[in-house]
Predict the 3D structure of the following.
Amino acid sequence: MTNLTYEVLQREYEKLRPQLPRFCGCETCRGDVLVFALNRLSPNYVSTPQGEVLVELRLDSDQEKAKLDVALLDAFRRVGLAPRCGARSVQLL
Ligand SMILES: [Zn+2]
């Protein structure tokens, strides 16, 4: 079973991360960003490859993408302000 929201989030993380060079980006911070965003979005569980394609199409709509990016950027901002790994706090956005 896969949570497609998580799959798409990871892809978006890799896309947004280079635009935030001051963000720590270590494994701890990456995990915290993903978990924070994930908890604010609805999961999309699929068990079959066919279902995966359908939900992926839905998640690809602009509206869904926008929701995802908002949650992700907020997560970047919060984790950047208080990184658990001990990196310096940065104001990202
Ligand atoms: Zn870090």
Notes: The chain has a mean pLDDT of 90.
